[in-house]
Amino acid sequence: MFKSLFKNLKFKTPHTYGLLLFIIVVASLLTYIIPAGEYAREKKDGQTLVVSGSYQEVSQQGVSFFDIFRAIPEGLISGGEIVFYIFLVGGAFGIVHKTGAFENGVNKAMNVLGSYKALMIPLTMTIFSILGFSIGLAEETIIFVPIGIIIARTLGYDAMTGAAMVILGASSGFIGGMLNPFTVGVAQSVAELTLFSGWGLRSVIYVFILLAAVTTVMLYARKVKHDSSKSIVYELEQTESQSGKAIETPRFTKRQGIGLLLIVAAIVLNVYGIFTYGWSFNEMSANFLLAGLLAGVIGGLGINGTFEAMIEGMKDILFGAMIVGFAKGIIYILENGHIIDTIVHGMTTLLADVPSSMVIITMFVLQFFLNFFIPSGSGQALTTMPLMVPISDLLNINRQITVLAFQYGDAISNVLFPTSAILMGALAVGKITYTQWLKFAWKLIVVWVVICCIGMSIALMIGY
């Protein structure tokens, strides 16, 4: 009887929205339990800083039941710049994707690289890493996994090699995140830092991250080519290998090329505008929207087709955009219940005698495991950075390093946890099991963690 009962009880990972709503409910209950308190704050060099030693308790102000649900629209309103940036960028990329520019362009590039067998893996991974650190390439990796697998098999490798080239290439850039608006951009905006500032050290660490990934894939590919039985997906290769099959590349047109150039131009213009004129999400949104509309018209979609593709692109990004509202809703509850500063005060008291290096590692570990529950980078940034920033201020830790801890913790875990829809989707189209992926990737993940911890320690030492 008990056997059948436990058999029917199957654990299901809660939906991210459901989990965030649960956190909002818990936060609401905590406004009646945790003593309300506040720090004094002051403006200095454009940043709102917490005044050390100014914490004092205030009258308890527990939020109402209705506030639980009001928190979500309030969160969407307060995070409006980010929400609409995500929607408009998603729409712009939806247009360019509809023209076939992304798939055909990368397909052609990878096909050309295939003739240079020794260079195919590093060059392909570098291409995807550039897309990872510039536009935050994430969901789109799923599209390219089958192409990577076909090319890998053609060159005598296996499906794992092909999938890893795409997944780990994009992930390397995502970890670097030098120009990634969805993680570094959002985290820095919360921390009141100049967008994409501190890119120099991130670039150095990114090089080591990419080298580790390329080395891992190349060593595995060489082993498989010498002895196919050592392939982690050997049984899959026995039944589905297409070695020797010609790769049919759809024609990459000039119009599609112009579409890609427009997106590249938008990225370059945004970076220039940010560093020269102090642009924010609104200006970046406008540039991507303009580039997307031009790419659609030039790409032959027509006016109606362009806007239909834009709507489709927005639908694809809806999950990430709405998470912003839920994540900001948590902060809305904590702030309105006046307990966010009490939580910060308690954490800083516990960490006061801990060396700064260990505080940063603790933040990194927290962000790493939190990504299991909140797989959206922007959502995680908006949930945790309002807590981490004042803690780092009170402990005299530079906010840039706090952003590093968030960035690395979030990005590395994207290729580890099964709650990552992007990872699971990419593995699914490659017919690779999650267990097989772990067997292949776990050592690299450990190396990445070590590299990032060393990088954060160096950042502390040089006063980054």
From TrEMBL:
Domain of life per record: Bacteria
Secretion signal span: none
Keyword field contains Ion transport: no
GO cellular component labels: plasma membrane
InterPro entries attached to this UniProt entry: C4_dicarb_anaerob_car-like, DASS-Related_Transporters
Protein's membrane topology: Multi-pass membrane protein
Record's subcellular location: Cell membrane
Keyword Transmembrane helix tagged: yes
Main location: membrane
Segments crossing the lipid bilayer: 15-34, 76-96, 116-138, 159-179, 199-221, 258-279, 285-305, 317-334, 354-374, 440-462
Cross-referenced PANTHER family: BASIC AMINO ACID ANTIPORTER YFCC-RELATED (PTHR43652:SF2)
Name listed for the protein in its UniProt record: Short-chain fatty acids transporter
